[in-house]
Please model this.
Amino acid sequence: MTQVVGLPKPRWRLRDPYAHQKGIPNFPPIVATVLAARGITTRAHADVFYKPHLMRDYDPLQLPGMREAIERVGKAVAEHETIALFGDFDVDGVTSVAVLHEGLVPLGARCLTYIPDRFAEGYGLNFGAVRRLREEGCHLLVTADCGISSVAEVALANELGMDVIILDHHTVPDVLPPALAAVNPKRIDSPYPFDELAAVGVAYRFLQVLYEACGRPLDDSAFVDLAALGTVVDVAPLFDENRKIVTEGLAQMQRGLRPGLEALAKVSGVAPERFTAETLGFAIGPRMNAAGRLAHANIALELMLAQNRMLAGGLAAELDALNRERQRQPVVAAALYQAVTRLGGHLRQHPGSLMDVELSIEIEQRGLRCLEEFYARRGDTARRQACWRYRDSLKRLQEAVRRKFTQLGNPEAARRILIMDGDRLWRIEAEAALIGVLHYNRPWWPE
Model:
């Protein structure tokens, strides 16, 4: 007789075990408890949660640096200076640049967009990009979804005669870059009531006050769909201001999609009227992110800015093909991610486990060989060579690991090295496994 094995019994982990004691009076108990667990304990807060359009808008000028940013961009527009729009290669960065471009061009701005190559340049502002943008004649550099930690790069831009405005949402370091304005809701000196905006949300609010300062009406419907897309895919918490942005953006999408989103909806098999946050997160977002992970994020940016349906259809098909290729790599990526996750915890308990360190390196080398084959099929010699160089650096790392353990047979010394440098190693490897691309131009182990 065949025994049927049932599903494991779910183990619930409550966000707030005492939420049932804080529920809104006269609400259904289950609803009141769920809302209370989310911090919603009054009827007024519940009304805003269920009907985000009732939420009042915050004043973007409360964000430190916003006034200076508006004044400098207004000056650049009036004097026909070239403005460089520099964004990250993920969906939040791409939509931030798209929002800024679509908002600034109607004001008469001369804009040049720049998304770094994930493989050749890595994340964030870099010296080479700064120099190239200056050579292109840019006098003002606006970074979106990056820049808040780029102290040296911003200093170089200043030396070359460029003013820099930062629109970011990442954790703010102790020392801010020497930018003309650093707009970030997470700044400790920010009185802005909400600090969880995505970068595209910051860009969206920036445009609102810029248009007001220019005495021009802003058609929110032209940008709110992109603001919603970037907010959802960047996994920003969907409450308060983000909830309002996403609700309005989804409503706009259901009324009609821009050509780029319409083309992505077609290749992903989702009807526009059925667009939800889940659609953005699991159908649209992965296809856009595939550009930066396997080719270049400019494909996604060009798609979001496309006005021609035929052009949009071709770009969407290219993103869909890249996403399918990305989906064919999950076995290697998942194996590496799981191995690294296990090793992270294991090494804290057993810091002398040389075998585990070498196992992680070996798994990653296998993943790189798969990527080399992929780029060889695409005829992408540069990225194939990058994988080869990275694999060669892993061999050197493996030798360095062996030397360190040989020299430092002292477990306490080994523990210090692994916690000091090993934590960074495992974190970077885990990120690399998730994106399926393993190329970092940085030293991995101290000599």
Notes: The chain has a mean pLDDT of 80. The two ends are 62 Å apart (CA to CA). The beta strands are 82-87, 110-114, 138-144, 163-167, 181-183. Residues 381-407 form the longest helix (27 residues).
